[in-house]
Amino acid sequence: SQKIEQNSEALNIQEGKTATLTCNYTNYSPAYLQWYRQDPGRGPVFLLLIRENEKEKRKERLKVTFDTTLKQSLFHITASQPADSATYLCALDEGYSSASKIIFGSGTRLSIRP
Amino acid sequence: DAGVIQSPRHEVTEMGQEVTLRCKPISGHDYLFWYRQTMMRGLELLIYFNNNVPIDDSGMPEDRFSAKMPNASFSTLKIQPSEPRDSAVYFCASSLNRGGTGGTEAFFGQGTRLTVV
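Structure tokens for the assembled complex are given below, as produced in the milestone run.
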């Protein structure tokens, strides 16, 4: 069956450290992988998109990797801050055709302690 | 643009009643998605539209759920009759021009928190 698994429900990190979140998938062939941030009581907000032929993408303190052989994406936040505390969702987009759709993992709740 | 607009923000209804959730996507976007979020099941895709046409409704849980998109600027998700297990946050999202040209981000509304008692 198709699955998108994010490695843990919750992650607690000391401020200033690098937070690493994992997204693994099975029985999907995504053309794109996206990461979103969700704050309590709000809808998810897009952060980064990486294509299947890209190994790594960066945006400010964020870095995403995409390994289609391992069927895994890693999401890194460097120099983490308490304001980074939120739930982070990975999403698969099979792309290419009008029949494709965006499917989300269950999310990882990240807490950055001062 | 004001973003994706959903209404109502909160809805409390009694079991058996009909519930209609509304969504106005971002102008010019050609994809519209309806999601449901619960603690147990996360963010589930219910149905999505491309150019107002339903493409995949395999995520709709039961025949009690139906969705329409009569025009490019409006969509509804209806539950009739509602049950307590339908209690969740329902999100609408829209995106632009994904037809074979590359993945693009989805823009989400604030959600409708539905409570069925």
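Chain A is about 0% helix and 55% strand. Chain A has one domain: 3-113. Further analysis is deferred to the final report.
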